[in-house]
Specification:
alpha/beta, seven-stranded mixed β-sheet, five-stranded parallel β-sheet, globular
């Protein structure tokens, strides 16, 4: 690697947003360098996040499916769990995808620079790797440096206290696992470890699980987890955590939580922190707030016009699909195109069992803001497809503007909710109304039918359910 590289666009971070920006810019004719501190492209999402977690959730799903098969007359023996083979398969999935990204970078002539990078000026990064330093000089840059797991104050530095990265390594299956944080990441990993045989306890400071989702969407999940997990302590927090000889000693605050308990391992999943303070942004004059976020406008430009920022580092929601779209916008703006990030909705999905997904206005937000709305709700007990695949614990909910009848938001709980929510997101982006959705012929029998039926319920024209049209509600 030369001591100095000159490019038109340098991208810091090769996650879903970073590589999208680099590849789109290269397609538009720019000379691009993509800087990544890890050995493989793909960032947290591909290497130690979205992809390996979904691979492990598939393993959990197979185990759970076999366990529930007794209800339909099928009996299977207890699964023989080979952790080494599971890890090998998971790593193979990741390797296939990271290898594909490396190939795409090569085809596009994107120069990949390995190492830890910081701004050395408003037009250069200093990248250090294995004792050597490279100066990457650029005309424009995209900051796609992502985020890191938030730390629990006072947690011991001990192998038995894991963050999400450590949990995905799947070193073993603890007999009793404490999950600190009842958000999406914590509950997804709890799903995995419970299926593999761990007893699960969850402690969450809020009064409910998974902040952001409506309570009625969470009800089927909460009911199922309440029956499966040993403990779910809400409105409770960790006062102290210590490494003990026989496990992790944890003291709690909260009326329902015990004063103290011992666990074989603890997973700390209390959110993520942006990496804005770790990249030497002041050397480039880029403004970083006290939390580590960098403000960007709709073209993804920072306060320094030739430097863009995307993904986790520009704020919530910290989701890969948001970062990827912002990366393309930044690349196009850098290439002189009129491009802006104007997404009306950014879907959220929890790949728990059952899955929970939502997009657009939630009912909780509507009530808090005093927004008038009408809704159509379909319990999956009314879905032939849900019943015929033994997954009736679901619900589809659509919120509509009572005047224009345009779709405002959607929430789905149940199998494949993460796939189903895409139709609702598209409908909101296209300004679809209840008739557009209800008159669209959905194939039968499918779970997707519940979206069409929910629109019919709102309109008072449903025949598969008795549901007279409801009056509009106001928060």
């Amino acid at each position: 690697m030369p001591a100095e590289i000159k490019v038109q666009l340098a991208v810091l971070g090769a996650g879903p947003g970073g590589y999208a920006a680099a590849f789109r810019a290269a397609d538009l004719g720019l000379k691009v360098a993509l800087i990544e501190r890890h050995a493989a492209l793909g960032g947290v999402c591909l290497n130690v996040g979205c992809i390996p977690s979904k691979a492990l959730l598939h393993v959990a799903g197979v185990i759970n499916e076999a366990a529930h098969a007794k209800e339909i007359g099928l009996g299977f023996g207890a699964p023989k769990i080979d952790l080494a083979q599971i890890r090998k398969w998971k790593d193979g999935v990741v390797g296939q995808l990271t290898g594909g990204l490396a190939g795409l970078a090569k085809k596009r002539k994107v120069e990949v620079v390995r190492g830890e990078a910081k701004f050395s000026s408003a037009n250069a990064f200093q990248v250090e790797h294995d004792g050597a330093a490279v100066s990457v000089q650029f005309e424009q840059a995209v900051i796609a440096a992502g985020s890191a797991p938030a730390q629990l104050r006072g947690a011991p530095q001990d192998a038995r206290v894991m963050d999400s990265t450590g949990a995905l390594a799947l070193a073993d299956v603890p007999k009793h696992l404490l999950v600190v944080g009842g958000g999406i990441i914590g509950l997804e990993m709890a799903t995995v470890y419970h299926a593999l045989g761990s007893r699960i306890s969850v402690v969450e400071m809020q009064d409910g699980l998974m902040a952001g989702a409506d309570p009625d969407l969470l009800r089927p999940l909460a009911k199922k987890l309440g029956a499966q997990y040993e403990n779910i302590w809400l409105g409770a927090g960790v006062r102290e955590m210590k490494a003990a000889k026989n496990g992790v000693q944890v003291s709690f605050d909260g009326k329902d939580a015990p004063k103290s308990a011992i666990f074989d391992k603890a997973l700390v999943s209390v959110g993520r922190s942006p990496n804005g303070a770790r990249i030497g942004a002041d050397a480039a004059g880029v403004a970083v707030d006290e939390r580590g976020f960098i403000k960007a406008d709709e073209t993804q430009r920072t306060n320094v016009p030739h430097i863009f920022a995307i993904g986790d580092i520009v704020g919530e929601p910290m989701l890969a699909h948001k970062a990827a779209h912002q990366g393309k916008v930044a690349a196009e703006a850098a290439a002189g195109m009129k491009s802006a990030f104007t997404a009306r909705v950014i879907p959220s999905v929890a790949y728990t069992d059952p899955e929970v997904a939502w997009a657009g206005l939630t009912e909780t937000e509507a009530k808090a803001r005093g927004v008038a709305y009408g809704k159509g709700v379909v319990p999956w007990m009314a879905s032939g497809r849900a019943l015929s695949q033994a997954s009736p614990e679901g619900v589809t909910k659509l919120l509509f503007d009572p005047e224009t009848e345009r779709l405002l938001g959607a929430g789905i709980t149940g199998r494949h909710a993460g796939d189903l929510i895409a139709e609702a997101a598209l409908a909101i982006e296209m300004n679809a109304d209840a008739e557009d959705i209800g008159l669209t012929i959905h194939p039968h029998p499918t779970l997707a039918e519940t979206l069409g039926l929910a629109a019919e319920v709102f309109g008072g024209v449903a025949t598969d359910l008795y549901a007279p049209r409801r009056k509009a509600k106001t928060g």
